[in-house]
Amino acid sequence: MDLELKDRVAIVTGGGMGIGKDVARLLSQEGCKVVICARRMSYLNEAAKEIATETGNEVLPLFCDTTDMKAVQFMVDQAVQHFGRIDILVNGAAAPSGVVRNDIEHAEDHELLGDLDTKVIGYFRCIKAVTPYMKKAGFGRVINIGGLTGRGSKVMSGMRNLAIAHLTKTLSDQLGPSGITVNLIHPGVVDTPHIQELYEREGIKQNKTPEQVRQGYIDSTPIRRTLAPIEMGYLIGFLASPKAGAITGESIGIDGGLTRGIFI
């Protein structure tokens, strides 16, 4: 199926590694001109070179701190100056699993504020910056990357993902008349460079080895495996396409069936 993404312009925040990198790869494979942005230019430059060499399509690495509205606006304006338009925004810049991982007695308010500033308000800033360009074109696709902690009470940082669900639904109502869709995906246990840290933290809490923790997730997942980052790209690629124009305001789990809820 042709996703009709050739020559579309996409921004992927957090695109230097992990899920963001493979999302950028998939979009580039489909013919998009891709901007990847984050705070660590070394990762961005390496990812841009790797993806462009593989796909033959241009990938532009740009520095951006999404906690700074001026930096976000500058990044978006640079992208438009270079490529002439913005069709797709994938919001993925955030600390994996959040910064607040302790119980309330040991959690700090500044850590929680940092989590919200990066993942919730950071997403808001990026959407705000691209909206005028998408409205002018009469087309836009915004895909926010959340997490399964938004559907449960495992860690306090999960409130970020629940807040993003509300942001997604609210903005889908506001932007829909302009041809802009806004959706959210909740990834499950994905094999990224950061996942080993999760296994180690959980192992300490559960008095298990990291491998035992990993196996526990696998055993709890109906498809009996962890997920590959590129699988997030497959879903996002479809949501970013003109073919997904009737899908908006949705929170979609891509977790191998790990979430047991029916309607959430």
TrEMBL record:
Enzyme class, spelled out: oxidoreductase
Stored SUPFAM superfamilies: NAD(P)-binding Rossmann-fold domains (SSF51735)
EC number per UniProt: 1.1.1.100
Signal sequence region: none
Catalytic activities: a (3R)-hydroxyacyl-[ACP] + NADP(+) = a 3-oxoacyl-[ACP] + NADPH + H(+)
Pfam families: adh_short_C2
Domain of life where this protein originates: Eukaryota
Annotated GO MF terms: 3-oxoacyl-[acyl-carrier-protein] reductase (NADPH) activity
Record-stated family: Belongs to the short-chain dehydrogenases/reductases (SDR) family.
The name this protein goes by in its record: 3-oxoacyl-[acyl-carrier-protein] reductase
